[in-house]
Design a protein that fits this description.
Number of strands: 2
Strand order of the largest sheet: 1-2
CATH topology: 434 Repressor (Amino-terminal Domain)
Distance between the termini: 23 Å
Oligomer: single chain
Number of domains: 1
CATH class: Mainly Alpha
């Protein structure tokens, strides 16, 4: 599962506001706000988390595995 920090970092890499992520993912603003808070995406439905992840990946973000040496992260795809 992606983390709140990964979602915020992905938006920062893209220069997106929360409303821009709402438009790209189809998920409501309150849900995005909650997913980026200390509550994290764990309390959201799997379909909402997937929609956010797909929207960010479509925009060029790659999610890094938490099993990697540096832990979970994001980067822009080449």
């Amino acid at each position: 599962m992606i983390t709140a920090e990964q979602i915020k970092a992905a938006r920062a890499l893209l220069g997106w506001s929360q409303p821009q992520l709402v438009a790209a993912s189809g998920v409501s603003l309150p849900t995005i706000v909650r997913m980026e808070s200390s509550v994290g995406p764990g309390r959201s439905t799997a379909s909402n988390v997937d929609a956010v992840r797909r929207a960010l990946e479509k925009a060029g973000v790659t999610f890094l595995s938490p099993d990697g040496a540096g832990g979970p992260g994001v980067r822009l795809a080449k």
